Amino acid sequence: MTIGQRVFHLLEEKNMTQREFSRRTGIATNTISNWKKKNTNPGSDKIMCICAALEVTPEYLLSGVTEDSKRGKEVDFMVIPSGTKERELLEMFNDMEWIDREHLLDYAKKTLSKYAHHSGIRKESDSLEKIAEFNDIEIFMDSNFEGKPSLAVYYIDDDITGTIDIQKGLIEGDFSEYVRPVIYEWLNDNRAQLLDMWGKKKIELLPEWE
Predict the structure, then answer these.
(1) For residue range 111-124, what is the model confidence (pLDDT) as tens digits?
(2) Burial of 112 by CB count in 10 Å (0-12 exposed, 13-18 middle, 19+ buried)?
(3) Residue pair 33/18 in contact by the 8 Å Cβ criterion
(4) I need a surface site. Which of 7, 137, 169, 179 has the fewest CB within 10 A?
(5) What's the burial of 49, exposed, middle or buried (CB within 10 Å: 0-12/13-18/19+)?
(6) Which of 1, 3, 81 has its CA nearest to residue 42?
(7) DSSP readout, 49-66?
(8) Is the Cβ–Cβ distance between 170 and 181 less than 8 Å?
(9) 3-state class of 78 per DSSP?
């Protein structure tokens, strides 16, 4: 069985149309049809995207067998189209020295951790809505408007959360001596509008602030 024939065998087995296969691989439908009509094989540059679409290993697609003679071996590879930001990032990563790679991976893990925490703030209460963002500080207001006028604060860089009592102008949270004054200044500039929003029970996105 040729590679082209194996592709069509898998399409039939998976009940996948040529149109769907074309969508998943980015290969034109007429090119796919020609493999069958002219009994030709896909080019070598198409092998990996075909394997990803059909969920088989390159070894199986090329030879019909895997190392353990089972096609169902777990597929552990990724196809990244050229011309994408992901591809550009991967190529730059591959050109780096190993120590730079370690630094980049460490930074990426810390960034993901921060944004996971950030998502957690909103999960703590479905009623929290972001109303402002400045200097890596995010401000949330409770759309239920329960209790005294207040806000939730999240400082992304240090992964710190806190609260603001709008009426009293009190800020709670382990914010640094550099961050706390910035929050105070923003609060003073926007307190009247914040109290108005709370009084009317209507949340609005505040204008950009620097």
Answers:
(1) 776 655 555 555 45
(2) exposed
(3) yes
(4) 169
(5) middle
(6) 3
(7) HHHHHHT--HHHHHHS--
(8) no
(9) coil
> Shortest CA distance to 87 belongs to which of 48, 59, 57?
48
Does the pTM exceed 0.85? no
Distance CA 175, CA 161 (A): 8
Q: Under a CB-based contact definition with an 8 Å cutoff, are residues 169 and 178 in contact?
A: no
Q: Is 141 exposed, middle or buried (0-12, 13-18, 19+ CB in 10 A)?
A: buried
Q: How confident is the model at residue 84 (pLDDT cuts 50, 70, 90)?
A: confident
Which residue, 72, 83, 205, is CA-closest to 133?
A: 205
CA 162/CA 143 separation, integer angstroms: 17
In this prediction, residues 89-106 reach a mean pLDDT of: 84
CA atoms of 166 and 190, how far apart (whole Å): 10
Q: Are 9 and 21 in contact (CB under 8 A)?
A: no
Name residue, tokens 């029970």. 201
Are the beta carbons of 172 and 163 closer than 8 angstroms? Answer: yes
State the number of CA atoms in the 13 A half-sphere of 37 facing the CB: 6
Q: Are the C-beta atoms of residues 195 and 167 closer than 8 Å to each other?
A: yes
